[in-house]
Specification:
heterodimer, A: mainly alpha, B: mainly alpha
Chain lengths: ~130, ~130
């Protein structure tokens, strides 16, 4: 996929907006990044997801984490216990994704995204 | 609680690999509802456990199939870093409840657009036809 400089600049601007959203809502950027790469930049679903995983490799949440750690708002044991599962589960999940066609994966992603969105909306206003 | 945490990690991990996302969007509410963490502790713990590159195993799977745009991904990481700083500063002055709700609506709209989208045709091929 040839990336022209203007296109990469647009992607940088979009990712900065996504980063601002994650700071606002306290969620990871991938859940917003993947649909935007597909809808705005014509990425094929698998490629959008692979690219999103690259963006999540550096510890971009480091500054935010330090604030929470300073305030004593980190459960170290639970965090450490969750880590190995996320790593191993990640490999299993990507194997499942590889078995689906791009369109099948896109629809599956849309269904899960809708469920997460509904969960967010309902849990904020229905209390 | 320890067993729950291990199982939770595995379930969230499958989602991480399947969707190519970080997992925080599911981890935070799961820790609040299942482990009875308060919101701040859940968010701090979620940020902590995402410090190591836990998606690396999943990324290698996509890499093998050449489904990775490395340059665009690196640029997005830079954008996340810059945007995250400004976003968290703006967040302080706003009602988090309404924000979270609007975020949910945004996700639902994005999901509907993704669902309706016609299958991606390789653009280069169309242009050269």
């Amino acid at each position: 996929m040839p990336d022209s400089a203007p296109r990469l600049l647009l992607i940088l601007a979009m990712a900065t907006g996504v980063g601002a959203l994650s700071g606002l809502f306290g969620v990871g950027g991938g859940v917003v990044l993947v649909p935007l790469l597909v809808l705005l930049f014509d990425y094929e679903q698998h490629c959008a997801q692979g690219t999103s995983l690259v963006a999540l490799v550096p510890p971009t949440g480091l500054l935010a984490f330090l604030n929470y750690a300073h305030a004593g708002e980190v459960s170290w044991t639970v965090g450490l216990l969750i880590m190995p599962g996320v790593f191993l589960g990640g490999i299993a999940g990507s194997r499942i994704a590889q078995k689906l066609s791009p369109d099948g994966l896109r629809r599956a992603f849309a269904v899960i995204l809708f469920a997460i969105g509904a969960w967010q909306a309902i849990s904020s206003w229905m209390k | 609680m320890h067993l729950q945490a291990i199982v939770l990690g595995l379930v969230v991990g499958i989602l991480v690999g399947f969707m190519g996302v970080g997992g925080g969007v599911v981890l935070v509410p799961a820790m609040v509802y299942l482990l009875h963490f308060d919101q701040h502790l859940a968010q701090g713990t979620s940020l902590f456990l995402q410090l190591p590159p836990l998606g690396l195993g999943a990324l290698l799977m996509y890499w093998r199939k050449q489904q990775v745009d490395l340059r665009a991904g690196a640029i997005c990481a830079l954008g996340f870093f810059l945007g995250g700083y400004f976003g968290s500063r703006v967040a302080i002055g706003l009602s988090s409840r309404d924000l979270k709700g609007y975020f949910g609506i945004f996700l639902m709209i994005a999901a509907a657009l993704l669902w309706r989208r016609k299958s991606a045709k390789p653009k280069a091929k169309v242009a050269h036809a």
